[in-house]
Amino acid sequence: MSETNSAAEVAAPHRYTAAMAADIEARWQDFWDAEGTYEAPNPSGDLAGDAELAAKPKKFIMDMFPYPSGAGLHVGHPLGYIATDIFARHQRMTGHNVLHTLGFDAFGLPAEQHAVATGTHPRVSTEAAMDNMKQQLRRLGLGHDKRRSIATIDPDYYKWTQWIFLQIFNSWYDKEADRARPIAELVAQFESGERATPDARPWSELSAVERADVLSEYRLAYASDAPVNWAPGLGTVLANEEVTADGRSERGNFPVFKAKLRQWNMRITAYSDRLLNDLDGVDWPEAIKLQQRNWIGRSEGARVDFPVDGHAITVFTTRQDTLFGATYMVLAPEHELVEKIVPAAWPEGTHDVWTGGHATPAEAVAAYRAQAASKSDVERQAEAKDKTGVFTGAYAVNPVSGEQVPVFIADYVLMGYGTGAIMAVPAHDSRDFAFARAFELPMRCVVEPSDGRGTDPAQWDDAFASYDAKIVNSTGDDISLDGLGVVDAKAKITEWLAARGIGEGTVNYRLRDWLFSRQRYWGEPFPIVYDEDGVAHPLPESMLPLELPEVDDYSPRTFDPDDADSRPETPLSRNEDWVNVTLDLGDGPKKYRRETNTMPNWAGSCWYELRYLDPHNSQKLVDPAIEQYWMGPREGMPHGGVDLYVGGAEHAVLHLLYARFWSKVLFDLGHVSSSEPFHKLYNQGMIQAFVYRDARGIPVPAAEVEERDGAFWYQGEKVSRVLGKMGKSLKNAVTPDEISAEYGADTLRLYEMAMGPLDVSRPWDTRAVVGQYRLLQRLWRNVVDETTGEVTVVDTEPDEDTLRALHKAIDGVGQDMAGMRFNTAIAKVTELNNHLTKAGGPLSRSVAERLVLLVAPLAPHIAEELWRKLGHTDSVVYQDFPVADPAYVVDETVTCVVQVKGKVKARLEISPSIADEELEKLALADPAVVAALGGAGIRKVIVRAPKLVNIVPA
Length: 954
Description:
There is one protein chain. By secondary structure, this protein is α+β, with helices and mostly antiparallel strands. The chain folds into five domains: 1-59 and 734-890, Orthogonal Bundle (Isoleucyl-tRNA Synthetase, Domain 1), CATH 1.10.730.10; 175-269 and 514-594, no CATH class; 299-508, Valyl/Leucyl/Isoleucyl-tRNA synthetase, editing domain (Isoleucyl-tRNA Synthetase, domain 2); 687-724, no CATH class; 891-953, Ubiquitin-like (UB roll), CATH 3.10.20.590. It is built from 31 helices and 30 strands. It has a five-stranded mixed sheet, with no helix packed on it. The protein has a four-stranded parallel sheet with strand order 2-1-20-21, sandwiched between helices. A four-stranded antiparallel sheet has the order 6-5-7-15.
């Protein structure tokens, strides 16, 4: 604090300062906690009997909940939290019953890595981080219902995460009914013979292991051997979304390899169409909807079988019309048929370029598989100039032409899409074209080019791809597509394939089943045990929660990051007393072995909106009446869900897709009335900050950088400056505690909202915070005498100019609040406050009170203090938001421009409601207009009341 400011404070002891703000804010935060100000009531039983609650519209407002980092919050983190708090406060003041709270997504890898490094139990460090963040969030004055706050690591919470897993495990998707059903109903179909077993044997003749295997093919949660992303340096497998574009782990930046492991999966693919179709019923940004549609990746085409050595390679293609142009095939390196079709020796006449320089097909395939395993899916699909692959030594038969076509493996084909095999039509696909050129493979034109290049692909620079062309060179023994357009050719060949049992029309999806296992300690244990035959058994609800045991070593076994052949060893597997148990699951005590993987950190965030509704219910996931009240479908919300969900766009195809899947399963099983978790989604922007780097490229402390003559200096060394993220590692983080200490939390709230539109990223500038601080000082000064501390308002009516300024502000701020345009709302409040300051003299009490109510959602602490000083004994939180008088919102007069020959000749002050005819008469009678016309006739008068008259002389 400068000496000048200190002197001013002595002269004005009741000036609004950082010290006064700190006192006001702490007192009101204590008051809100003690009074339970933000506690939203739930309906009790039948809502119709709860007249007071039934009369109020509800509003469920949520933030994407934070991970409790030990580093705490920087000023970028609360951007969305402040915004939802302001919106929630405005909704309370407009008569809504508002549910707004915040929990913690507290399982995950960072706490586990901290435990490995320090030996501190993850719960200890996580709970310490949560306590710190709670204090930081409280200081911001966020109006959360703290009774409803949850943490995913609490056994009372993850009991229900485990319970939901069991509902999914004990369910299957009935395609005819288009919904999930209990697995017991499927068993009943097998038992009665209504549904045949895979080998047609009676259900009663199948062993327990065989029955388990059959049901596993249907369950929505199942374990299987599948290619996974294995990160030896982390000792765990990762979902595709957790692997970066350069094939490394998002967390830790370790190499990621493909490996086949037995893992738990969620059959999210069963819901592909519903996940797509229901996007039409939610109010989400179109960019997020597009990302989900692309991730699900629905495409229509055909399945085609290519015979090979007693097996069949099944491909999915969207261009079955080009089947005659398939001159080779490619399998993903991980394809299960590779080992079955590889011969002992190279066939006679094998091209040298096909073998990769290896003596046998087996050697070539093994070497290439090892090479492919070191690449991410993104790398494998990159449009690189050099195409790689190797011949398997096997030939398949093109089913329409009867030709022998060589079968390759290549890394540009993935198991994660289609069948993991493609028919290559190099003349009409750029990747196949490049591969064929590299490996000297034949190409056949079957879609007639329209660009004059001719029909010999050997003369082309690239493939020709078109959906608007004729089919050529496509005649076989009993079918011809020649002369047909693409659509007709597709239909004809699909019918031909189906008639011969070698293919059929089908729909394919890019979406893969969700990998749901992690080889970590700090996650939810699976409520699954295995018997001596390896059959998985669900724990009964009475045994939930299955709590995490203590272990001596929290770390999964890690390996050399480049050791692609290593395999995971989980921390839980080391606690033999916990792993090996004797349980009575209803058929007497037996020995079992627990599942030693844990659930991914996404599990707890898939359903937390439901726990907010009924956080202390120990008997049910959520009371049905409470869920129906807060989230049930209603007009404009056909699928129900949270009214407003605010968070980052980076969760488009992870958390948001997973949560939608869980919500739909719970809906199908009758546990909830909402089939979508979040009705309206809003993505806030990011607060950015300047990053300063020295000559080595190392970040230096931003707070210690000096600007001189347009350059930036740190300890005498010139440094570079770029705008980037804010974070501890970049040494540019500013904490909300720092700003609150210097200016007060209300100032911080105003500044973060005033920086720009909420959905746009914006740079942080600590020097600009003072502008909002001064706004609050002027607001305070307009109501309170800085010398005496007495309220200066008077009980007189304001003049008309003040009433117009007031009601225009009320109208504009109300609309901006409802539309989450908080930056423009603050601008309107500032404009009104400046008007009142310039008007001089004491404020009318009616104006002062409405000004405070306008400010209340934005700066709640100072609003509470001023509301109390104005003589009120109840909280400002539930006061009615001011309503504008339309008579004062409309301007008393507006300026109309009168043009002659397109040039302005007069300006008229007229009523905004003036009729066209009256405005035309006034314009033509104006002396300046009469002079400009000079007696000339008038050809046309164009009137755009009340702003414009354009006169065209004859």
